[in-house]
User: What shape does this take?
Amino acid sequence: MKSRTTIHIIIILILIAIVITILTSTGENRKESNSLKKEDTAVQAKVEQLRESLLISSDDTANLEIKFRAEQEQLNMSRDELEQYQQQLMKYRKYVPDKFPTKTHIISQGYLPENNHYAYDFAAAKYDTIFAAGAGVIESTAVNDRVYGTTVLIDHLIGFKTFYGHNDVNLVKPGDVVEKGQPIATVGMSGKSTAPHLHFTVIYKTKSIDPGTILKNK
Ligand SMILES: [Zn+2]
Assistant: This one.
């Protein structure tokens, strides 16, 4: 009789322990997702604040897009237009992601839409520095993306974003403001990668564009 009571007490204690474990773990998960949400909102707020401080209107970016196309197609511009364009470019210059993100410019795989490769792969030594191609705000980072491993995404505030994949270590976190040429990560082979290299994507208004059309500053 006495031993049966003991067994009952032990079973009840085990059940209580299980319930407590479940309750505390979901509480922690909730806390974690709340703080992640908070960080996202903070990053968004910072991006908006910076945009406002730059007085970048959607008209400005639309105009810039047209001018970029004009430059690429080498259309003739009047003297006034050209001056206006140059002034505009001066204002935005540091945000344009035109700086090579690695010291070496060895492209091991180019922009090949037919191969589903909408980026440049820069061959580099492991631990080489990865530089921000333009000034902006770190929009997001990851450490275990299935394909790209450790990654950084920069919002350049004028319609451009750049993405850096297969990194060894990230040196920045979401919300950080970076200047053009600032070290943001080191070269690695995280994710699906057989040799150390940087997978570098330039996004303009949600579309991946050929990085070769914009990279010029060594
Ligand atoms: Zn790649």
